[in-house]
Structure formats: C-alpha cells, structure tokens
Amino acid sequence: MHFRAIVAAVPLALLMAFLSFLLPVMPAAAVPVECLFNGDFTAGYGPDGIPLGWARFQQGSGASLRWTADLLSGSAQASGRPLLTLSVLGRQGRPDVLRLGLRQPVQVVPGQAYRLTLRGVLRCSGGSALSSDCGYRPQWALVPGGGDQPPPEDAWRTVPLVPAGPGAWRVEHTQVLVPRAPLVTLFVALAQAEGPDADWAGLTLESVSLVGPGAGE
C-alpha cells in the first residue's frame, strides 16, 4: 500500500519540479533608499561654502548663498547642526534675481516612483505683514540629464507655504515623482516672484530627500 502511494507521488513531484523550472522567478521588490548625497547637509561644506555633493545654481545677480548655524523648531534646533540658508536682498539692492539654489545629479530607475521631501523655513523682513509669501517662493525642478542647462520654466514647481508667525513660513512638502530617464538632476531654489515685497528674504533648508529604488539594485 505504501509502495503504491510512493510510486503515484513520483510523477507528481517530477511535474511540479518541471513547472517550477519553466515559471519565471519574480525579483524581490527593491528596498527604498536615500538617493541624494548630503541631503541633510551633515556631511559638511566645501571651501566655497557649498554643501558637499551639491552645486550652486543661480539665474540673475544680486544674491548670496551661505550656510549658517541657524535654528529651526524641532529636531534641527535640538541638534544645533549647520543649515543652509539661501538669502536674497530685495528692494534695497534692486536685484535681477530669478532663482538661487542648489542642484545635484542623481542616478535613478526610470518608471519607478520616488518620494521628494523638502523641509525648512522661508523668512522675510521689511515686507507687508499681509503678504502671503513676501514675493519669494521655494521651488524645485527635476529634469533629465546632468543639469548643465537651467530647467525650462514649465519644469519648476512652487512649494506650498505654512504660516509660522510674522514674516515666516514653514516648508513641509512631499511629492511623488516618476523619472523617465536614468540620470536626472534635482534643482531646489529660492525664486523671486514679480514685484518682491521684502528688503530681504532667506530660505533655510533643513533637509532635502529623494527616496526610492537604488539605481544599482
């Protein structure tokens, strides 16, 4: 009786082994990773004051880019670490600044979803207390390639602001992106709107993050 059961089970086992050989092996889902280098600026800054891994980006003139041990509410204030401040003189300097910021090329997996997160604060002085953004706004753009050319105007996205007191707005923004090229460049900038309503504007970045499948996985 046991012998007959064993004999009957052998063809079934062979069939299952054959089918497993024919069926494709599904790859394991890629574990999301941080794709930016030094997105929280803890790796330090170069002698030019630019965070390591990033490059300066500017359209126009009359602006300055510097890092400072700025204090933001929450974890940044507790750690006391340096934060990046993009600062622009407004009406007094009569600048011709459209955008000032940073850019970084990133290797990605085309067609996969990535999560972009920006955190920081926008502050202005000398503007109208009723202004919604004092004439300056945080923006970002993700474009194919190594970022040698400025992004086209239709590639820029304006970050929503959350009021945080007189002349201050929190930046807490998350966006899901699907890159179409294996190499893209992320731009993050302080942009001047038409008719700036402030003598000075500063965008202090706490962190910039791009999380998704690693290009080498």
Topology, element by element:
Blueprint: H1 2-22, E1 32-34, E2 55-61, E3 63-68, H2 75-79, E4 83-89, E5 96-107, E6 114-125, E7 136-144, E8 157-158, E9 162-163, E10 168-177, E11 183-192, E12 200-213
Antiparallel strand pairs: 1-12, 2-5, 3-4, 4-12, 5-11, 6-10, 6-12, 7-8, 7-11, 9-10
Supply the helix-strand structural class.
Answer: mainly beta
Order of helices and strands: HEEEHEEEEEEEEE
**Would you identify the CATH architecture?**
Sandwich
Question: CATH H level: which superfamily?
Answer: Galactose-binding domain-like
- Major sheet description: 7 strands, antiparallel
CATH fold call = Jelly Rolls
Radius of gyration: 25 Å
Terminal Cα span: 52 Å
Q: So what's the overall shape?
A: globular
- Report the uncertain regions: 5-10, 69-82
* Beta content: 35-45%
**E-strand count:** 12
Helical percent range? 10-25%
Tell me the number of structural domains: 1
The CATH C-level class name: Mainly Beta
Q: So how many helices? A: 2
Mean pLDDT: 75
Describe the structure.
- The structure is a single chain.
- This protein has 217 residues and is mainly β.
- It has a single domain, classed as Jelly Rolls (Sandwich), CATH 2.60.120.260.
- 12% of the residues lie in helices and 43% in strands.
- The strands form 2 sheets. Strands 1, 3, 4, 6, 9, 10 and 12 form a 7-stranded antiparallel sheet that branches.
- Strand 9 (162-163) and strand 10 (168-177) form a beta hairpin.
- The chain is globular and about 45 Å long.
- Mean pLDDT is 75; it is low at 5-10 and 69-82.
